[in-house]
TrEMBL record:
Keywords: Signal
Secretion signal, residue range per the UniProt entry: 1-18
Protein name (record): Short chain amide porin
């Protein structure tokens, strides 16, 4: 028992220290017995965004045409609690809201003006809710560990970034296509099912069997098979399977929770190579001459992650880099347009060439085809004994090639993290661009968006 307690304490310390704050300690933790092996830990975080965005052609906000927009919104407001009621049993509960703006993001039924006007009083919902049992406990000197669990969970395989923590991104946010099912056949990147996780020496594994949420988009009937477009329609959904395996060459990462760290700020030496998959039969449909055909979803990825101190130790510099390749097959010409906190609607008075993706900040985000995404950041030197304010500039590049579009896109993100107290209090400024397709074979330039985020988490 003593070894287990020491291991648990070390794990909690690694989790908190990995956030880059020397003062955070064990966080908001309530011990339920004197030994500390029965406890509840709480994590709360808010992410507030201010934006200045160029709108897609053909956009209206409110009752006015809009070519640009400035606003402030609530990207994430969350609370997570997990309880270790014995060394083998754990329960995890995670709830909150996302994406509330001045025009949308309110609870179902909110509209117009007044106490329940458009965008007001969003509904809380569960992001995670699962139970877990440690079949083989991690022990010092033992190479193998295994835990199994079930419920609404985040062990969705595919890639490191598919299971990313939203607390410690290198960039201001995830690129979104890392969650390829987002809010279609999943609930905000989660599905209900069972999972197994663990380690074998330097190998970490995660596998799950899940029941996808039902989708029911009706396919458009065409007379030419080459024009058929797959849409999400799984009917009585069949079980999905997901998995991710990575080899951790240097420091081992904690796997108490599924959330993968985006940047350790030089507090660990991490070099991992991983590969993953997600597959679900009969998940999309096309219709040709009235004949409906079902298609599976088959998604695969390979990625590499590096986070390590650089140079003289007293300068506290660090490099973070991540690169991932996705191969997505949702069926013929599947394409999904997404814009984070999109406030735009179609402008009926617009007479020019509208963006194929639609109004606001929509862009081709997910589809049958391939995506290559790479990000890198550098933590600038700081010789103070207990540095608080740290600066980390970064850059990210995305190349998308979707079967539904004859021209691929190249996108960039440029930004800087200003750490006031590690990831626990930070400001992030980022500029991003997105392609404006006016035809499947034509990109009529790129639009930009400047974002400023204030994040605090405890």
């Amino acid at each position: 028992m003593k070894k287990i307690l020491i291991a648990a304490a070390s794990l909690l310390s690694a989790i908190s220290f990995g956030q880059g704050s020397p003062d955070y300690g064990g966080g908001l933790k309530l011990n339920l017995n004197p030994e500390g092996n029965k406890y509840i830990r709480f994590i709360a975080w808010n992410q507030v965004w201010m934006r200045s965005s160029q709108m897609n052609p053909g956009t209206m906000i409110g009752d006015a045409s809009a070519s640009a927009q400035e606003d402030i919104g609530l990207r994430r407001l969350r609370i997570l609690a997990y309880a270790q009621i014995s060394p083998r049993y754990m329960i995890v509960t995670h709830f909150g809201i996302n994406n509330q703006t001045f025009t949308n993001g309110g609870a179902a039924g909110t509209a117009g003006t007044g106490g329940y006007g458009a965008g007001k009083k969003p509904g809380l919902f569960f992001h995670d809710a699962w139970n877990e049992y440690a079949v083989v406990l991690p022990k010092e000197g033992k190479p193998f560990s295994l835990s199994i669990g079930g419920g609404l969970h985040y062990y969705m395989g595919l890639s490191r970034m598919t299971m990313a923590s939203t607390l410690n991104f290198l960039t201001i946010d995830a690129p979104i296509f890392n969650w390829p099912l987002i809010d279609n056949s999943d609930q905000f990147a989660r599905q209900v099912g069972i999972f197994a996780k663990g380690k074998y020496n330097k190998l970490e594994y995660r596998f799950s069997l899940n029941k996808p949420f039902a989708t029911s988009i009706a396919p458009t009937n065409v007379t030419d098979a080459s024009a058929a477009v797959a849409v999400d329609n799984n009917g009585n959904a069949r079980w999905s399977k997901a998995g991710y395996v990575e080899y951790q060459f240097l420091d081992k990462e904690a796997n108490l929770l599924p959330f993968k760290v985006g940047t350790y700020l030089g507090t660990k030496k991490v070099f991992n190579i991983g590969a993953g998959f997600y597959t679900a039969p009969s998940s999309t449909k096309t219709s040709v001459n009235g004949v409906v055909e079902k298609h599976p979803i088959n998604l695969f990825s390979g990625d590499i992650f590096l986070d390590m101190p650089l140079g003289a130790k007293e300068k506290k510099m660090a490099l973070t880099a991540y690169s991932v390749y996705y191969n997505y097959d949702f069926g013929p010409k599947y394409l999904r347009n997404i814009g984070i906190m999109n406030e735009g609607v179609v402008d009926p008075t617009f007479t020019g060439n509208k963006a194929l993706a639609g109004p606001g900040n929509l862009q081709p985000m997910i589809g049958t085809g391939s995506i290559w995404y790479t990000q890198a950041g550098f933590l600038l030197p700081n010789k103070n004994e207990k540095p608080k304010v740290r600066i980390q500039p970064y850059v990210a590049y995305t190349n998308k090639n979707f079967d539904a579009l004859k021209t691929g896109s190249n996108q960039f993100d440029l930004g800087t993290n200003l750490f006031l107290d590690g990831h626990h209090a930070k400001l992030t400024a980022q500029y991003s661009n997105r392609p404006i397709y006016t035809a499947v074979d034509n990109i009529d330039g790129y639009k930009g968006e400047f974002l400023l985020q204030l994040q605090v988490y405890l």
